[in-house]
Request: fold
Amino acid sequence: MLSKDIESTIAKASSSKTIKAFASLLLLFMMILPVMAHPPSLVSLAYDSQNQSLKVTTTHQVSDPTSHYVFRIEVLKNGEKVITKEYTSQPTPSTFSYDYPLNASKGDILKATAYCVIAGSKSSEITVGETKLSVQQAGAANATNAKASLPLDKILLPPGFKIEIYADNLTFARSMTLSPNGTLFVGTRRPFETLDAPNGSDLYAIVDKNNNNHAEASEISVIAKGLNNPNGVAFKDGSLYVALINLIIRFDDIESQLDRPKEPVTIKELPQYLMHGWRYIGFGPDGKLYVAMGANCNVCQHDDEINATIACMNPDGSEMETFARGVRNSVGFDWDPATGELWFTDNGRDLLGNDVPSDELNHAPAKGLNFGFPTCHSGSIPDPDLGSDKNYTCNTMVPPAWMLGPHVAPLGMRFYTGMQFPEKYRGQIFVAEHGSWNRDTPIGYRLVTVRLQNNTAVGHEVFAEGWLQNGTAWGRPVDVQTLKDGSMLVSDDMNGVIYRISYIPS
Ligand SMILES: [Ca+2]
Ligand SMILES: [Ca+2]
Reply:
């Protein structure tokens, strides 16, 4: 609307073709810029006392408003829910407004939250009768030069451990993998709000050439730019495998050409699902490439066999088959070095409340198991819509090996195979919790360990916390990776950094 007004104003001011052309260019620039330049997502409220009507205006930049849209608007009056409206698309690919009849009087506090169908929500609040409109800007944080300002002293670790910055300026750093030579590869994924932005995100490699346990700028290579959310990385026989949303690609002989790699080879085409489409990959002890295929929904039944599974294939992409089904959204897995068996994290469905279901750590000792989604959550909770058939039972599904808690968002996980950390950590699973996005009281934003005994999970404790302070997160752990010296790297996509946690015996 704003752009149109400006265009017509400029066009009216003169009939000259040049000025009209300039106005069109300006309009084009204004339309393109927000998508290219990591737009903020805004929610603003305006209350019309005379007509007893609330206008909720949302900015949500998307390329296709029928597949990526604000699906729910909720309004609270003085803390009580008074409006819930659901939608199956949004009216425009950028800014749009909805008007709702609402009785409110001076002093009432109105809070509106707009929920994206993929993930993420934005809120804003006003007090009726106040002249100044309260607009809350809540774009995803993306400080890439944050090294100096990150409050690492807030991170609590067990005695003897310390945390420092290993690498920074790695915009949207996500999954990590280490080659046998010690090259660290780092995948990335854009924030939910700009997942489909045309400029994509980059892929990094780090070689700590001077062995000082820190990646100087000269030790970081950008392998590729502008990829479609290259979240997953895996390394085998000299080649780097990268999972984008819609492709798995392979860079051959990558370590000899980190700065100017040859064009990658596509080994597999995957569906372009935005929701839960950021793929995690890894090579199993069987030499197969495993890929997590997240469900293309919060909760749904689907015809697409590949949806909500962990699949595996030959390294050339052939003979893809389902390894595990009923997996909603796994963004981390690893094989127990003691047994060769797969363990994986899974993120539970949303919108069942603050405290259910629990996110999961799962154990898949064999192919062909079903881990419950979408009918059965955290082992015993039938889905209120899809699992309520009385003929249905959770008994045939594999329950979680360990309940990690609701909405903690467990992503990367690894068995600790190093020798630097004390004995009690060896063979344990470290899990990075990205943290909740839609829980009233935020939870997660930490590292936890799960203790195994006789191939069974028997305990769970917090290892590192402090990224969440007074309900506000300043960092979000994504993946963990042990270095050869036994120290542990932790990626953080909110700050675009990798931390290194080491242990120094007293
Ligand atoms: Ca270095
Ligand atoms: Ca499950």
